[in-house]
Amino acid sequence: MDFGYGNGVHGVFKFIENAEVMAVFFPKFGQSVVIDVRVKEGEPPLVRVLPMARSIADRLRTIKRMRPALPRPQDILAIPWVGYVGALKTSGLWAKVVARIEATDYPDAITAAEKAFDELVRMERRELAQLIMGEQYETLWARQR
To answer: Considering the entire predicted model, what is its pTM?
Structure first.
């Protein structure tokens, strides 16, 4: 399976191994999981589900506001994910993200990552239910009766 990246999903893995700040964003339902593995005394890694940012610059500003004790990140690895949330695990991408978090040696951050994943699954299911039920969506054309 290519998970929407052609054969390139494995190419993303090498970037995850070196990234300090990452955001996997889901355009289908407008959310992101933001991971910042930088640590400092009293500042554990950050793992949080947030609404999608309008730009990378906006996301960097948000992270700086959330983590004022740390310097503004120099860059961010932004990964658009157009597949289902569950495919993050089957692709191996989520395991790479969790391994990056585990390397910080903060068990609470690993717990936060799993909670964030579960939250994304719930959000995706809610969005799919709204699509099926017609909530927040309009039909472009209707069948003639």
So the answer is: 0.83
